[in-house]
Amino acid sequence: MRILKLIVLLLLVGTGVTMAQAKKGIVTAKIKTPTVQCEMCKNTIERYLKREEGVISSKVDYKKKITTVKFYADRTNIEYVKTAIANAGYDADNVTANPDSYNALPKCCKKPEDGGGGGETKKKH
Fold first, then answer.
1. Which residues, in sequence order, are bridge partners of residue 59?
2. pTM given for the model
3. Phi, psi for residue 40 in degrees, rounded to 5
4. What kind and span of H or E run contains 68?
5. pLDDT over 90 percentage in the chain
6. What Å distances lie between residue 17 and 21, 30, 104, CA to CA?
7. How far is the C-alpha of 72 from the C-alpha of 56, rounded, in Å?
8. How is 13-52 classified by DSSP, letter by letter?
9. Torsion on CA atoms 43, 46, 47, 52, rounded to nearest 10
10. Suppose 72 and one of 16, 49, 54, 96 were both cysteines; which one would form an S-S bond, judging by CB atoms 3.0 to 4.6 Å apart?
11. Which domains does the chain have, with CATH numbers?
């Protein structure tokens, strides 16, 4: 009986340590996304990041032009997350949007100098 209690205690402690280590591996990053224009941009980036390995969640604030991303540090890193946003067609901090992806975006999601934009006036499409 004493051995059983000891085994159960060790299992509980081991589980607690593992969970604590996993929580430490979660990173929350704020990335400047200056080229997001509207709700459609927000949805595109969030949908794209859902497919990125290691990303737990993402929230795009197109009014403030900031994307907040939570991810597991042992599965991805901030540069991969920025590259994923760039591959969706948007600038991410110092990573420029993939030109082909940017060109494929709807007109409303493009930069104002490229005939797009509208920002707050075009919230839904």
1. 68
2. 0.75
3. -65, -40
4. strand 66-72
5. 71
6. 6, 28, 46
7. 7
8. HHHHHHHHHHHHTEEEEEEE-TT--SHHHHHHHHHHHHTS
9. 160
10. 54
11. 26-121 (3.30.70.100)
